[in-house]
Amino acid sequence: MSSPFFFQTNAIKTSKYNLFTFLPLNLFEQFQRIANAYFLFLLILQVIPAISSLSWFTTVVPLVLVLLVTAVKDASDDFFSRLIFVPFNRLRSEKWMDVQVGDIIKLENNKFVAADLLLLSSSEPLNLVYIETAELDGSTNLKVKQALTVTGEMGDCIEKLAAFNGEVHCEPPNNRLDKFTGTLTFRDQKYALDNERILLRGCTLRNTEWCFGLVIFAGPETKLMQNCGKTTFKRTSIDHLMNVLVLFIFGFLAFMCTVLAIGNGIWEFQEGSVFTAFLPRPDGVDASFSAFLTFWSYVIILNTVVPISLYVSVEIIRLGNSFYIDWDRKMYYPRSDTPAEARTTTLNEELGQIKYVFSDKTGTLTQNIMTFNKCSISGKSYGMNHCWDLTVFKTEKVDFSYNPLADPKFSFHDHSLVEAVKLEAPEVHNFFRLLALCHTVMAEEKEEGNLLYQAQSPDEGALVTAARNFGFVFRSRTPETITIVEMGVQKSYELLAILDFNNVRKRMSVIVQSPEGKLSLYCKGADTIVYERLHPSCSKLMDVTTEHLNEFAGEGLRTLVLAHKNLDEDYFREWSTRHHMASTTLEDREERLDELYEEIEKDLLLLGATAIEDKLQDGVPQTIEQLSKANIKIWVLTGDKQETAENIGYSCNMLREEMTDVFIISADTPQEVHEELRGILDKKSKMLPDETVDGEYGLVINGHSLAYALDKSLEQELLRTACMCKTVICCRVTPLQKAQVVELVKKYKQAVTLAIGDGANDVSMIKAAHIGVGISGQEGMQAVLSSDFSFAQFRYLQRLLLVHGRWSYLRMCKFLRYFFYKNFTFTFVHFWYAFFCGFSAQTVYDEWFITVYNLVYTALPVLGMSLFDQDVNDRWSVQFPQLYSPGQLNKYFSKTAFFKCVLHSCYSSLVLFFIPYAAMYDTVRDDGRDIADYQSFALLAQTCLLITVCVQLGLDTSYWTAVNQFFLWGSLAVYFAITFTMYSNGMYLIFTASFPFIGTARNSLNQPNVWLTILLTSILCVLPVVAYRFLLIQLWIRPKPSCCLSQKWLLSSSSVEMTGSGLCLLISSGCSCTCVESFLSAVPCSDLHGSCTVSFK
């Protein structure tokens, strides 16, 4: 094969670990996280007696638990990603991993293809095989492959197959699933090999008893494995913010430790000498060295500001919110038995911050179920107008019963076309003959006259079905012939060449020879492409056909132009020789073939045009309207022509007649594109910072203009113009241009993007966006396989964003705010205590409390809130999409919100330290015994802390469930149970050194003044929060004559009940609408339904 290099075996390793490498590799990966590496560093410091004032277990227990949970998750993910190798039937039974390049293997029905194979022979007539490619592109439509006639003659004769001595030269391994270039040299003849002769690993053999194949590529060199490259790791904006905040926390930790170290140095210099009589300093230790050691001691003690358990908790929250998406019955599509699926668990909260949605049209906004609706033949238009009453459609449906091979599901409403066919008009017969011959459809006829078409695209299936009903029935095909039934007469055309369709050519042609010996070329393709290749004599017909095309496109129909030409036999013979030479070369095969195609596809004669209807999916206009109200901008990127795209835009309510203006850019040169963009900006030059304008505008731009506008010199003007518009539609775009548009917005806009599509041509766009959504539709599953989330219908997007996205973002932000609050509060108490213990790095809490504070006492309550909390229910979230806006503005968690948490923690820590300190100072029990000892103070401080953070959690919770209640009260109960157990006589007697707080709990917590202190401290900690929320409602957003506030409010004559602690404040047009989430954060957002009236009820 191609070059003398070492061929891979068929063994595939899809797992990262094995039994021996799991522990070292997984630990290496985990310690690449800065927080884990930091705690490992702390553990090393803690084994140094001169530095550590804490026991080793305070760091080891949290670190081991975090590493263990992550390791279990990684191990399970790796286990389920393994590809299990199973034996398959061969002449000599072997396992997949033992297959080698050059082997000839036998496959049986319903078996997976073991490697990339050159098909040699099969059990089916004409050496056909039927394969399912669901594992490659998700498509369940059967594809047809066919062996070369010269190898098919070997059949299943083992002697002939064993003696096969062909030589294959082919391209090197690559990931192109739709392309293969190679040649087979056999019996001194060279044969071209293309994708139609190749069976790829991962396919499944269907409806074929057996086949034989020659292994071309094995193992990692197969196209399936070549497509398993690393996907770009997507991270949320909160992840990026967290990285910045963690670095700040490290800096802040270093600052606090430096302050305390300086304090220790000063204290040792001024006061330390007084204590040397009974606390002598070690040799060589002075005040400055003591300060140095104290710095590292406080690095250990204040380590809780660095959240080691944060990342594990975040992953648990994201996993839970992903399950909500998977389990959502309202996103389940019963017709295809397709549930919604969160294919990644790392991007949930990003769904609540989407600003731009980039959508494909065909199959995404539309159903991608094509029906032949209209056509233009020789200047005459056929088909009924859409404005006709549906009852007329039903009564005037064409009766095709005269055609025994007609498809009973097909319907048409214009009888004049049937009459034209029956009158044997030559141009009409040529039109349908072209549709019956120029395609790649395969026909399956299990019963006489019962035809089933296997089409690789719905368009082709619709056109071939139309030709079938009008009397030109495609019956069967072989590599050399196409058999059709023309008006009841069966004819076999010799298939001389297929000029393939691709995204660059945008057309397909076939060259056939009729039974009468006439050579003809039939071509169908995009109007702009075919028009360039027409004979000048077709100019008048082209003008009429163009008018019809514009009418069809105006109705949202998909159009193709048909043309043909007769070929000279001598010329074709010479052209065919050159075609064979080009098709059997390995170098520049595609370029050489394209030149030959261009040469023969010229001077065509226009036949007419087809118009196929692709109906909108259910709920698309309503979904787009709701997303628009959420201030989400939707851009449609489609390959359809401009008129079709515009019509779909109006159908979807993206473009509306009441818009101020709809700008159209269709220039063909860079200078003209620049002038059109500049003209639009001049019209609306006054742009506000958020690029809103006084009015609603739409923008439509075609592919030619977009190619120039995406140039570096014009891209910013394009973006400014597009962002000024409420709706943007890009038509005639290529898959690459789709990705370029997404990248342009990501490059210059601080906004989260989402791309949604259903086909392979949307994959680049889906991968380019922050979040990719795949629609499992009619074009296979390549988009789904490349996506982060998937479902069956576009209308589910609003629930994904407005419900799951908003909830996920809200929950994650609440979690982060509370997590930082409780950890900073916990740590700051240590900081204040340092000023009262000579900066000696003495801890204010019991060591066991420090160990289990984050892991036991406060872990489940915050997880309960983060998994179940709702400010409003799902119905309200969809009904009032304006609630989505705070996520787009990063209002719930940002650097500002983080610093507010730090300030709140600072205040709470001051109260938590100084109130218990003052209460315990020189205090005695009610029996006169002393209670002002360190251990009693530590118990009081940690009890006040835990109760305070639990009360704060209760204030932050908007939606209470039984689980929340159990977690919150259960955590408090567990705290007191563990405290009384650890401070008991028994634990002290068994582990004397580890449990020194003997009797502290029972001696302190039975005193009324201790409980009074706990109550007072907790009230003082939460009082500012309650007061702030009360004053926020009463003063800052007081009811005004034009905008009155109540938890029951009237909107557009509709009574709406507010539930829960979430409150939505609405102000009439001209004011700002404010959404107050849990009475804590007031966030400006756009008003509801434009001008609205809100009043008390």
TrEMBL record:
<feature type="binding site">
    <location>
        <position position="762"/>
    </location>
    <ligand>
        <name>ATP</name>
    </ligand>
</feature>
<keyword id="KW-0067">ATP-binding</keyword>
<feature type="transmembrane region" description="Helical">
    <location>
        <begin position="287"/>
        <end position="312"/>
    </location>
</feature>
<feature type="binding site">
    <location>
        <position position="558"/>
    </location>
    <ligand>
        <name>ATP</name>
    </ligand>
</feature>
<dbReference type="InterPro" id="IPR032631">
    <property type="entry name" value="P-type_ATPase_N"/>
</dbReference>
<feature type="binding site">
    <location>
        <position position="639"/>
    </location>
    <ligand>
        <name>ATP</name>
    </ligand>
</feature>
<feature type="active site" description="4-aspartylphosphate intermediate">
    <location>
        <position position="360"/>
    </location>
</feature>
<feature type="binding site">
    <location>
        <position position="758"/>
    </location>
    <ligand>
        <name>Mg(2+)</name>
    </ligand>
</feature>
<keyword id="KW-0813">Transport</keyword>
<feature type="binding site">
    <location>
        <position position="361"/>
    </location>
    <ligand>
        <name>ATP</name>
    </ligand>
</feature>
<feature type="binding site">
    <location>
        <position position="638"/>
    </location>
    <ligand>
        <name>ATP</name>
    </ligand>
</feature>
<keyword id="KW-1278">Translocase</keyword>
<feature type="binding site">
    <location>
        <position position="732"/>
    </location>
    <ligand>
        <name>ATP</name>
    </ligand>
</feature>
<feature type="transmembrane region" description="Helical">
    <location>
        <begin position="39"/>
        <end position="72"/>
    </location>
</feature>
<feature type="binding site">
    <location>
        <position position="362"/>
    </location>
    <ligand>
        <name>ATP</name>
    </ligand>
</feature>
<feature type="binding site">
    <location>
        <position position="640"/>
    </location>
    <ligand>
        <name>ATP</name>
    </ligand>
</feature>
<dbReference type="InterPro" id="IPR023299">
    <property type="entry name" value="ATPase_P-typ_cyto_dom_N"/>
</dbReference>
<feature type="transmembrane region" description="Helical">
    <location>
        <begin position="848"/>
        <end position="868"/>
    </location>
</feature>
<feature type="binding site">
    <location>
        <position position="362"/>
    </location>
    <ligand>
        <name>Mg(2+)</name>
    </ligand>
</feature>
<keyword id="KW-0547">Nucleotide-binding</keyword>
<dbReference type="GO" id="GO:0005524">
    <property type="term" value="F:ATP binding"/>
</dbReference>
<dbReference type="InterPro" id="IPR006539">
    <property type="entry name" value="P-type_ATPase_IV"/>
</dbReference>
<dbReference type="GO" id="GO:0005548">
    <property type="term" value="F:phospholipid transporter activity"/>
</dbReference>
<feature type="binding site">
    <location>
        <position position="360"/>
    </location>
    <ligand>
        <name>Mg(2+)</name>
    </ligand>
</feature>
<feature type="binding site">
    <location>
        <position position="762"/>
    </location>
    <ligand>
        <name>Mg(2+)</name>
    </ligand>
</feature>
<dbReference type="Pfam" id="PF16209">
    <property type="entry name" value="PhoLip_ATPase_N"/>
</dbReference>
<feature type="transmembrane region" description="Helical">
    <location>
        <begin position="1010"/>
        <end position="1031"/>
    </location>
</feature>
<feature type="binding site">
    <location>
        <position position="738"/>
    </location>
    <ligand>
        <name>ATP</name>
    </ligand>
</feature>
<dbReference type="InterPro" id="IPR023298">
    <property type="entry name" value="ATPase_P-typ_TM_dom_sf"/>
</dbReference>
<dbReference type="Pfam" id="PF13246">
    <property type="entry name" value="Cation_ATPase"/>
</dbReference>
<dbReference type="GO" id="GO:0007030">
    <property type="term" value="P:Golgi organization"/>
</dbReference>
<comment type="similarity">
    <text>Belongs to the cation transport ATPase (P-type) (TC 3.A.3) family. Type IV subfamily.</text>
</comment>
<dbReference type="GO" id="GO:0016887">
    <property type="term" value="F:ATP hydrolysis activity"/>
</dbReference>
<keyword id="KW-0812">Transmembrane</keyword>
<feature type="binding site">
    <location>
        <position position="360"/>
    </location>
    <ligand>
        <name>ATP</name>
    </ligand>
</feature>
<keyword id="KW-1133">Transmembrane helix</keyword>
<dbReference type="GO" id="GO:0140327">
    <property type="term" value="F:flippase activity"/>
</dbReference>
<feature type="transmembrane region" description="Helical">
    <location>
        <begin position="244"/>
        <end position="267"/>
    </location>
</feature>
<feature type="domain" description="P-type ATPase N-terminal">
    <location>
        <begin position="7"/>
        <end position="60"/>
    </location>
</feature>
<feature type="binding site">
    <location>
        <position position="761"/>
    </location>
    <ligand>
        <name>ATP</name>
    </ligand>
</feature>
<dbReference type="GO" id="GO:0000287">
    <property type="term" value="F:magnesium ion binding"/>
</dbReference>
<protein>
    <recommendedName>
        <fullName>Phospholipid-transporting ATPase</fullName>
        <ecNumber>7.6.2.1</ecNumber>
    </recommendedName>
</protein>
